[in-house]
Amino acid sequence: MKKSLLLVALVTLFAAQAFAGAHIVVVNLDPPGAGFNDPTAAAPIGGNPGTTKGQQALNVFQQAANIWGATLDSKVNINIDARFSPLTCTATGSVLGSAGAQDIWFDFPNAEFPGTWYQSALASKRAGIDLAAIDGLHDIGAQFNSRLATPDPACGNLTWYFGYDGNEGANQIDLLAVVLHEFGHGLGFATLVNKSTGAQAGGLPDIYEHYLADDSTSTPTSFLDMTNAQRAAAIINPLHVIWNGPKVDAAVTQVLTFGTPGLTVNSPSGIAGHYLVGSAAFGATIGSPTVTAALVLANDGVGVTSDACTPLPAGSMTGAIGVADRGTCTFAAKAKAMQDAGAIGALIVNNAAGSPPPGLGGADPTITIPVGSLTLTDGTAIKAQIGGGVNATLGVDLSLRAGADSAGHALLYAPNPVVGGSSTSHWDPIAFPNQLMEPAINGDLTHNVTPPFDMTLPLFREIGWYPDADLDLVADDNGDACLGSDLQASVIIGGNNSGVPNTLFTNGWTVKDFVNQCQAHATNRVSFNSRVAHLGDSLFSAGIITQAQKDALQSAAARAK
Ligand SMILES: [Zn+2]
Prior knowledge:
By secondary structure, the chain is of the alpha/beta class.
């Protein structure tokens, strides 16, 4: 068994933007009086019965653990170290949390691919033993921003919402969605590839990378077949990094709707054509309604006059699609200013180079117009023509599913320039309906991680989180001929312990499962004993049990009530 220790780079999340299951243990690492131990009184909210802030936070984590635990199957406990820490805040975008595996393995028992890294929670599920414990580690480390405990202008006044019902208010962030997202990274929704150099961890691919490909070529090029330089180039190739696997491909058709947001400039002819737009977490969904109108550049008369951070002259955008530059105030504030001036749609031009245009985080339920973002390059070209009159349509391309390429593969987040740990370890934010594993958390997430709502579980199935309701390490959807295996260590018949090892066969049957079949098909005691005798003969002939064990099996059956 080969292995090596490596702390996986944390994947950060930005705001601004069966039966058996698995047992997920949340380990509270907060000091007394803070985070999970915050004694501040709080009224129960949205299904969360906690009566202190700390208790409510811990309840949310347990709720997330329960959702993942009910979705994934593992006979090994998944241990998650969790704490609240002061993370980066800005007025327009704050880090909500980060999480990653604390231990990774390759070439462990039952690995699907040789020489391939797996996060320890998944490796342990497949091996059937707690691999992280061998290293004295827990599987996942997760931290969440403690600065969102109370409103703070430095954090855009965002605060955590502790309800389970997704009913957060303006300026609140649904902690449950964020915890589900971060746990998702720790469970395997992340690549270990260096996002800047394209180098693989220790020169080996990871299981997530097995399914990453660039679709710029007629046949997608797998990340496994690329040089480091090629991987680094692909990671910053927007809308071309895909998940190339049959389970996610199938989920795309169940989950993602047709219609990719875009801006079509109708005139003047010099800039006519289709432009990518990033969608906003607030306002009407782009395309409902589709709006066609003249573009009007914001002019609030103060400082950078096109930033729309000061109320615009009344009626200055009536019937128009407003255009404002990013910076100084929140996306929502700009959109609201344009709406108040009469705009029927709004565009915010990025203030830094790069593509695709960013998703616009934030919240303001009073914004009812569709809002999108443009890249700096596109926005600059369009603004240069506004003085002479520009007519455009803000709507959707109905030939493409939002978040998939033209071949129906799900798109991963591949912005240029690269975004730290986030690139390729998320779906592209163009995905619609919004997905749990997009780089920014959206206010409309359902807490579902399965189709028809979400594609996270299909991705997990793809990387090896196979369904295994009876926890016999044989995939229920691929080879398990007995979905309810009796996994006791020795064969016990009617309370009589035969002492015969309850061998598990590669098809998912155990010796006891065969005995149970004997019982199911027997018409009476004599018939049952006879069937067990035949079973014992077969197992003995196959060299699976000894003569003495064969006798013990028959004896236990004969004594059974
Ligand atoms: Zn993330």
